[in-house]
Amino acid sequence: MSSTETKRSTETQHSTEKSFVITLGVLIGLSPLAVDLYLPSMPTIAQDLNASPAAVTQTLSVYLACFALPQLVFGPLSDAWGRRFSMFTGLGIFLLGSIACALASDITELILARGLQGIGSAAIIVTVPALVRDRYRNEEFARIMGIVMMVMAIAPLVAPLVGGFILTMSGWRANFVLLAVLAGLSLLLFRLQIGESLAKARRIPFRPATLLRNYGALVRHGRSLCFILCSGFAFGGMMSFLSASPFVYIELYGVSELKYGLLFACNILAMMAFTVVGNRFVRRTGSHRMLGLAMCVMLVATGVMFTLMLIGRPPLPVVVLSVMLFVGTNGVISANSMALVMARFAAISGSASAMAGSMRFGAGALAGVVVSILHDGTAWPMFAVMMGCGAGAIVFYLLGTLLSWRHTETGEWQPQGQ
Fold first, then answer.
1. Is there a smaller number of Cβ atoms within 10 Å at the N or the C end of the chain?
2. Residue 413, domain member (yes or no)
3. Which NCBIfam families does this UniProt record tie to the protein (predicted)?
């Protein structure tokens, strides 16, 4: 092959990878949009639907709960029936849920519709890591997932700003109309850009016994379970911020909806910066060491949260900076913890992605519920839950590292009795 042909082939490969990553970033971005787009509207929704702040917060917690549990089913279904099935199903359900949210007449209907949105999001988000794992391995998986997470980060970067603008111009229901439109466009984009990546020869029949055996293998593998829980606790801390921040920033500190969007964007910029650095050095350091560096930053952020928890009303700039440290590491933690799990369980990547996602978002839902229960009109519940989640993430990272030192394994786990 001539140098010209080699260069052309390389350029084509880079172009294909770029298209693949951007498409997945758009698809996976629907979930953070569904979470963040309506955050500036939460106080308005409470007034419009005659609901308490705690009840409006439940729209986020129910979304996350319905987002977490169905992943345990959609992941194995993607291993059995292919990635297209789970993606098309998820986008269709998300579309219906978004329309139902826009038409909700009371807080109960909105909560139920948000649950439907969450179920659709579960199928979408659990399929993306499996699609990446079908094409990439180990550090390359972490690199590509890091890029996907960075592309995805654009969604929550602009979501509160767009949501605040839409709230001002058209009301809170228009946010859910926009989500319905984006779901329809994403369905078309996936059909045109992404092919089926799981060959029929590699598919695993969907049998309850096989499903339980595969999940049992994941649970019994202590190191992988620890890294999944590490990511879950870190995500739980971030979701506790998402649940409480509209009321802390807008009501407690008196910032406008637009300024809230700008402050929120600072966290996403921090996440993007950490992700860029992580992607640049992960090939050199490896996923385990990169995860350890992220946990060092998490340790600092957790210590700051503990200090803020003891202060009745800390200065807003200090709060913003401490949250940026905490939230910023989440992309690196998620990508590299999943890389460590997938390195062992590539044969059941859909199921592994499902368990990790279910635990991660289950932790997020639980953190949101705890924040709503502790709501007392101060910032204390948000700091306390974030500190607790950060401590949990650090503990499980250390346990996973200890198990890695004690047990050295080679090769991938293979499912038995298919």
1. N
2. no
3. efflux_Bcr_CflA (TIGR00710), PRK11102.1 (NF008314)
Flag whether 333 is in a domain. Answer: yes
Report in angstroms the alpha-carbon separations of 215 from 141, 264, 407. Answer: 21, 36, 20
Domain that holds residue 263: 15-192+205-403
Pair 119, 36: CB distance under 8 Å:
no
More confident residue, 13 or 238: 238
Q: Is residue 197 part of a domain?
A: no
Element (H, E) at 415: none
- Judge whether 260 lies within some domain: yes
| Contact by Cβ (8 Å): 280, 146 | no
With a CB cutoff of 8 Å and minimum separation 6, the contacts of 12 are none
Most confident of 182-186, 199-203, 209-213, 217-221: 182-186
CA–CA distance, 213 with 211 (Å, rounded to integer):
5
- For the chain, how many helices (H) and strands (E)? 17, 0
What are the CA-CA distances from residue 320 to residues 18, 134, 328, 402 (Å)? 33, 38, 12, 34
**How many Å separate Cα 10 from the centre of its chain?**
31
How many of the other CB atoms lie within 10 Å of CB of 3?
A: 7
Radius of gyration, CA atoms only, the chain: 21
Tell me the CATH number at 327.
1.20.1250.20
**CA 167, CA 165: separation in Å to the nearest integer?**
5
Distance CA 276, CA 117 (A): 30
- 217-233 as b/e: b if 16+ CB within 10 A: bbeebebbbbbbbbbbb
The residue type of 189 is L
Residue 105, burial from CB neighbour count under 10 angstroms (0-12, 13-18, 19+): exposed
**Cα-based torsion angle of the residue sequence 414, 72, 333, 278 in order, rounded to the nearest 10 degrees:** 70
Number of independent structural domains in the chain: 1
Residue showing tokens 């990553």: 21
Which residue shows structure tokens 């460590």?
340
pLDDT digits (tens, 9 = 90+) for 315-370: 888 889 989 999 888 888 988 888 888 777 777 777 777 788 778 877 877 888 88
pTM comes to: 0.70
138 φψ region: left (φ > 0), alpha (ψ -120 to 50), beta (else): left
Closest CA to 64 of 326, 354, 367, 330: 367
In Å, the largest CA–CA distance within the chain is 70
